[in-house]
């Protein structure tokens, strides 16, 4: 018998529901502004053939979602060309006993990463785009993050129309069709151009890893909110002017200083962490102000989800 619990991807998938996941990451986002988050910037090692190994250790001090955990994630882009294809990103979380530091569970972390990243965008949208219209959602990039964001946003906000664009158009068409079927709606539609997708959208999610700045500032409606998910040192999904004219928020400053110098160099106006708005120390963007949540991902989000999954695994049979 293993000296720790092993929680597989399929078990994680059985246990997660949006309401508790959103609640867990809301605690994690707030913790960075209240002194309850202990974490460092992500450590990244470049392996031969440009594969990557990331490590994110952290401790979240919280009665409900507190945990000591460390995530190890690899990025092997050529996995997508395997037969059958495998995800390029593969993550595992080691959850430790808070009083001894001894590992008590290993949790496979791909589902966890997908759910927590989309839930973080939901929380950012809830606080940065509060009491603003949420009729049209635009999703740029129909990969893993595009899909999970579509599901999370439709479950939590119920947009009238959810537009999806992808570089390979068929992928957007297929995703819209599948989601309409799975969620029993006709809200999902595919778009042929980025401009058609983004035009008049109230909320935008960019998850395309583009190098060529797909979303131009003139396409974005004044007062819209953008969740910029992609983290790519060699490019951004949004153009420089969109960063300059928007109020830009992040999940944690230390991560921004470490990983987002290329966006700071655009002259982006970083005004706060989402947790500062939740905690009330920074104001949310006003009416007519365009906002960006530049998502990076951070250890305490993984801690909160690992604790939630571990606790649910004990009680849900
Ligand atoms: N902020 C966070 O916490 C997290 C961020 N990410 C980031 O989200 C992004 C998307 O990740 P996944 O959905 O897992 O990847 P994926 O590979 O499943 O999807 C990426 C999508 O972008 C499209 N794409 C790729 N290159 C493009 C280009 N040059 N122009 C236009 N479209 C292009 C692809 O067609 C694909 O549909 C990545 O940058 C990843 O690093 C991923 C996990 C967590
Ligand atoms: O938090 C995360 O898993 C990631 N953030 C950017 C790439 C992957």
UniProtKB/TrEMBL annotation:
Record InterPro entries: NAD(P)-bd_dom_sf, ODC_Mu_crystall, ODC_N
Gene Ontology molecular function: hormone binding; pyrroline-2-carboxylate reductase activity; thiomorpholine-carboxylate dehydrogenase activity
Name of protein: Ketimine reductase mu-crystallin
Species classification: Eukaryota, Metazoa, Ecdysozoa, Arthropoda, Hexapoda
Record text on subunit structure and interactions: Homodimer. Binds the thyroid hormone triiodothyronine (T3); T3 binding inhibits enzymatic activity.
Pfam family, one: OCD_Mu_crystall
Signal peptide: none
GO terms for cellular component: cytoplasm
Enzyme Commission code: 1.5.1.1, 1.5.1.25
Coiled-coil spans in chain: none
Top-level class of the enzyme under EC nomenclature: oxidoreductase
Catalytic activity: (S)-cystathionine ketimine + NADH + 2 H(+) = (3R,5S)-2,3,5,6,7-pentahydro-1,4-thiazepine-3,5-dicarboxylate + NAD(+); L-proline + NAD(+) = 1-pyrroline-2-carboxylate + NADH + H(+); L-pipecolate + NADP(+) = Delta(1)-piperideine-2-carboxylate + NADPH + H(+); Delta(2)-thiazoline-2-carboxylate + NADPH + 2 H(+) = L-thiazolidine-2-carboxylate + NADP(+)
Protein family according to the UniProt entry: Belongs to the ornithine cyclodeaminase/mu-crystallin family.
